[in-house]
Amino acid sequence: MSVIMKTWLLSLLYVIAVAAHADEPPPAQLPAQPPMRVLVHQEPAGTLMQGETTRIVVDILTPDFFADAPLLPELHVDGAYLSLSDETPGHLVKTIDGQTWSGVSRTYLITPLMSGAMEIPSFEITAHLGADKTPVSVQTTPLALQVRALVLPAGVTEALIAGSLKVTQTVTPSGEGLHVGDTVTRRVEISAEGAPAMMLPPTEFPAIGGLTLYGASPITRDAVDNHGGFVGGSRVDTASYVIDRRGRYTLPAITLRWMDSQTREWRESTVPAVHFHAWWGAPAKPRFALPQRGFMPRMIEWFSSDTGIAVVLLCVLAGLAWYFREACQRQWARWKAWRYRRRHSEAAAFRALSRQRHASSAAIFAAAVDTWVRRAADDGAPASVTAWADQYGDAALGGQWNALQDALYGQGVQAWSAPAMVDGLAAARRRWKHGLRRWQHRPALPPLNPTG
């Protein structure tokens, strides 16, 4: 009996417990998190060249909608420049498992500076989805890249790889009408397709003597197309040269070497040199600044210009020439007499005779010899070639002169030689000059204590 009673009591307790649990409400279920997918890929795919810029595209998709723009972090990869592009996010629509997914596409620009294997690490993207702005975070998968080493040619220190590159310059003002104190501004712009602005090298403006150089901060920007895609970068460098003194100046040409990303060939882009001339102070800026603009300030302004200074100098020179006109006339007469004597001297006549060394005409050669003999006679030399041969020459000189005379008067028995005649006269002339110098240095008084 006791066993039956225990069985009934246990059954009754079980029924009461089941009834009690049946009255309690079921536990609340947590809402399912909205789905979001992230796809990371290289565009275009393939092996990179060291120094080449490529795109890392991040596609963020959801079957719902984004309440605001997804947040992407700033990434850091050792041995590479990596930055989030400022281009407008692209809108995506894809069908996955029969369901429509929409989203946005963001782009990182990466430029590897080292060769070998490189990896974009996993990173977290946070977005708010749906009308409730539910926060969702997704971790991306790492992306592996392969980078090939780049061999730089001689003279190139930095690698610049681009689809195309253009270098232009603007110089203001033009090279005309420049004066001391003016400023020449040289603006150089580098535009590269497929290369971000941060990879473009700075333009080096050399210092020029006579000019003071002032540099300006560069202006860089990345360009995008009509669809928000990255196109390339540009960099503008500006330098101002202040003219310190008058003269001609040249700003050297600027050459940039770069590699074509399509053909892998090195190319050069150059802007030409700049030439200009600077005069003294500008007419618009008188050397003596006066606040008034009356007659006297305008006159001082004109006299301080290049034209005014030139007119004043010409007037001073004309006045000095008029004041010293008599002395100038005497000096002019002396100079004319000196020039006449020099042109009609014995030395000038002998130089003219020496130029007839290869003469074939007996008349022309004899005229040159006669002119020299007469000029030498004025200086105390013998008055004929025969006397020259007897006093300073030799039998060969006399024989040549006789042969020349026979050829001149049609009685040529012996052939004459112009080179032999010139050499004989030159030797006789040297002996005459030597004796003349000895006579000039001979003492005027006899020795005080003669011997012998």
From TrEMBL:
PANTHER family: PROTEIN BATD, PROTEIN BATD-RELATED. Keywords: Membrane, Signal, Transmembrane, Transmembrane helix. Residues 1-22 form the signal peptide. The keyword Cell membrane does not apply. This is BatD family protein. The chain crosses the membrane at residues 302-324. The keyword Transmembrane helix applies. InterPro entries: BatD (IPR025738).
